[in-house]
Amino acid sequence: MTRDERLSRRAVIAGAAATAGAIVLKKLAPSQAEAQTAAPSALDPSMAPGTPTSAVGARSAFENPTRAPVGVLSGASFTPLHELTGTMTPSDLVFERHHSGVPAIDPKRYKLLVHGLADTAMTFTLADLHRLPSAARTHFL
Q1: What is the pLDDT of residues 37-74, one digit of tens each?
Q2: What is the pTM of this model?
Q3: End-to-end CA distance of the chain
Q4: Residue by residue, what is the 3-state secondary structure of the chain?
Q5: Cα–chain center distance at 60
Q6: CA-CA distance, 126 to 111, in Å (whole number)?
Q7: What does the alpha-carbon distance between residue 26 and residue 68 come to, in Å, rounded to a whole number?
Q8: Which residues contact 87 (CB under 8 A, 6 or more apart)?
Q9: Using omega within 30 degrees of 0 as the cis cutoff, is the peptide bond preceding 52 cis?
């Protein structure tokens, strides 16, 4: 071999770097055959069929406004006004104030006592309250 035919150190390093780069890219990028056979949902979740209906609606996984602070027994949970649009606040984001945590109320055992300035004290069960007429109104808090 003549001096001109020998490999230089730079050529060996450049060749090794190119080979290593090709191996890394091969592992990171799926082949065209893999990309064509992959389900559309694997590439873009919005292209997959949705979930079945449920008894109670839920927020989108992409929407997650929350009240703050979270995890305190006494105090207020504030509505995230900066994350809302429109004039209606969703019921799960309405301002709350608690003095001893959120009570666990059994609807079957619930009773409402109305007394004080009423002529006679009255006690209502939840079933009694559901039998009364109701009206929906929009108010500003």
Answers
A1: 555 556 677 777 877 888 877 777 778 888 888 888 88
A2: 0.48
A3: 91
A4: CCHHHCCCHHHHHHHHHHHHHHHHHHHHCCCHHHHHHCCHHHHCHHHCCCCCCCCCCCCCCCCCCCCECCCCCCEEEECCHHHCCCCCCCHHHCCEEECCCCCCCCCCCCEEEECCCCCCCEEEEHHHHHHCCCCCCCCCC
A5: 6
A6: 7
A7: 46
A8: 138
A9: no
Domain spans in the chain, listed from the N-terminal domain onward: 3-42
Read off the tokens for 1.
């071999």
Q: Are 110 and 104 in contact (CB under 8 A)?
A: no
Which two structure tokens, joined as six digits, stand for 106?
């059994």
**Among 81, 80, 55, which residue's Cα sits nearest to residue 69?**
80
| Two tokens, residue 98 | 């608690």
The two structure tokens encoding residue 16: 């090794």
What residue has token string 């709350």? 96
